[in-house]
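Notes, Module 5: Reading structure tokens.

Key idea: the token line is not a picture. It is a compressed description, and you learn to read it the same way you learned to read a sequence, by spotting repeated patterns. We will look at two proteins. The first is printed below with its tokens.
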Amino acid sequence: MARIQDLLDGELIIEELQAADKAAVVREFSQLLARAGRVRDAGALERAILERESQGSTGIGGGIAIPHARSGEVPEMVVAFGRSTAGIDFESLDGMPVHLVFLLVTPEDRPGDHLKTLARISRIMRGAGVRDELRRCMARQEMQKIIMDEDSRYPNGR
């Protein structure tokens, strides 16, 4: 299983999401991945993620959302991250606004890796200290370092 630090590079971090709602967040990330050359068709990816969202919100509580999909639009697994200072209504399980968003997209033929990576993101975001640090820091490099440092605490995915 890939570690988050192997999947998330600085160009896939949005310091301040412009989106005000769930659909706009997904669009913003899809367009970012298209500009970075990580996705074949941003519109198709957006539809795949929103279809997954229609099955149940990926707002997991604690100010975190992990929208995700398996898609033929990506040749390899990709993780992106964004922050919203204002907060976004993601229809989260706890009813609270989302401030930290991870996007995970995996090729269709890797369902096991998809689930393991979702679990890994959930694990590294479990600590309130990490969430607070990510909400406070200003620079993309800082955000990346915080995520990488927390990810490295779990070398074997445990």
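Here is the second protein, with the sequence above and the tokens below, as before.
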Amino acid sequence: MMASPNLVCGNCGTQLSEGDAYCSKCGVKVERATRRCEVCGHVNAHAEQNCESCGARLPAFIGAVARTVAPKASSTPVRQTGGSKPRKKGRKAVSSFRAWERWQFLAAGMIVLVVAFFVYTQLKSNEPPGAPAGPDPLSAVPPVSPQEIERLQKVVDANPADALSTLRLANLLHDNGSRDPQSIVRAVEMYKRYLAMNPDNPDARVDLGVCYFELGRKDSSRSQEYFTSAIKEMETAFAAHPTHQTAAFNLGIVNLHAGNMEAASKWFVKAVEIDSSSTLGARAKQLLEQHSFQALSQ
């Protein structure tokens, strides 16, 4: 039977006749038809009227003939130039549909990465670079029980001379300030009441200063007033206890927020001098470097 130029073996490309059940060259069983494009030479397995490579019109099927398995795709796709521009005979290319599909997957992956990076950078840039979060935020504050606050308030109201319960109540109110701003105001009053009974407790006095600082951050109209009160309490604590590193570090923080750069530099340096290997010492040194304080080199 005469071979047809439009029917080829999908495995080796040998021309087939209409009635061939096996390829005469490679022996592969013929299962369904193929058509070679007369313009670009691409072997088409589909039943469409146009070539899947260049778009040229294909010759019609001749009889009930078939082709073998589809030819293997090239591992190196040819760059598409657009449209259905005819290609030189014998040159093969991936279909424009398949090339576009790979491009879509690549573009989608890049978009996901860009969006993820943008979200991450936005979360990291909520505060200016190097901006401190506040005095001595060494660890997350555990949730405060409202019932415990209420219980201690009743104890203090019933016994105003109970210094330990007063200090405990002040600390709990301070810890609850992040959830209830009014608790900070109450904490200030409790710390002042406790310090009236025990004026030489540096930790309580520094905590009182921290409360003033937090009020200053919440009330911009009175921030300088509150910052001044915070500095006063912390300086009083440090004057009586010159190695109190928390007081020195927090004085650096408050002065930094108040815009007193020279004073902030001095107090951060003191915090480093007291103990450079501690957490506060390392953080003070980091802040000195971030804000390019001249005092670091002195």
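Summary for the second protein:
- The chain has three domains: 1-73, 144-198, 200-298.
- Residues 61-100, 124-131, 136-140, 294-298 have pLDDT under 50 and may be disordered.
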